[in-house]
Amino acid sequence: MDSALVIFTKVPIPGLVKTRLSQNTCLTKSDSAKIAEAMLKDTLSLASRTTADKILIGYYPDEGLSKIIEIIDGVRSEGYLNKPIDLILQRGSNFDQRFESVVDESFRKDLKFIVVLGADLPYLDPEIINIALRNLAKNFNENPLIIGPSNGGGLYLVGLSVKFSPSWFSTHNLFSSGLELSNFTNFSKDNRFPLISLPPYGDIDIEEDLVSLISYIQVLKNSEKILGFHFPYYTSKIIIELGLYIIEQQDQTRRRKLAKKNNN
After folding, report:
1. Is residue 125 part of a domain?
2. Is the residue at 255 inside a domain?
3. Domain of 45: which CATH number?
4. How many independent structural domains does the chain possess?
5. How far apart are CA 171 and CA 135, in angstroms?
6. How does pLDDT run across 16-38, given as a tens digit for each residue?
7. Residue 145 is inside which H or E element, if any?
8. What phi, psi does 86 have (nearest 5°)?
9. 113 in a structural domain
10. pTM of the model
11. Which residues contact 137 (CB under 8 A, 6 or more apart)?
């Protein structure tokens, strides 16, 4: 096997994941964890539709292993997952170290290149990942760095070949110092690595992001053909189960909030 899609994620445990979704909103910590779990399931589903040879899940914390296995088994039993999966525990005290540990362990599995993706972009078109994989294979000898720009100067995807040293994440503080997009851009320029940028997508971190996702889902449900998106089946289902909908704020243009139908 030459390639893998690596899903870098926290285990969806209340109080650990998507805490900003429950800040000053109608969502509880349990609601946010349920949404995070649904998004992870959708990420597994869209990963299964890519050309990657296998899927790796870099998870944290260690005590969440049984939960991760339960999620994998559930998606597989429902027919949305058809690729082999390996699990890697994130190790380290900060994001760069944990990311480094997962990349390092991934390349120890005799892979030539990987695409690392978060679990908070449930509507990402699998073809975006395929494009990254094709470019890594085509330009392998040049050691390209592939990035997917996200909200606020962040990244939703990083594509690497085995020639990329995992230690560079910590050495250069690529995630933990300043804007990730600027850090990776400057790093590639300074070290003369070809930089390949993918179309921007917005991941789901705050209330405004979830409002946008609910709007996207409404459009996708009524579209005869979906281009550039993966339909987030699990996330759509949990939004319905939680009774979430969008409300307008009076006298505030383009400022919308979440509400729950079962809220009193």
Report:
1. yes
2. no
3. 3.90.550.10
4. 1
5. 26
6. 999 999 888 999 999 999 999 99
7. strand 145-149
8. -115, 150
9. yes
10. 0.94
11. 2, 3, 112, 113
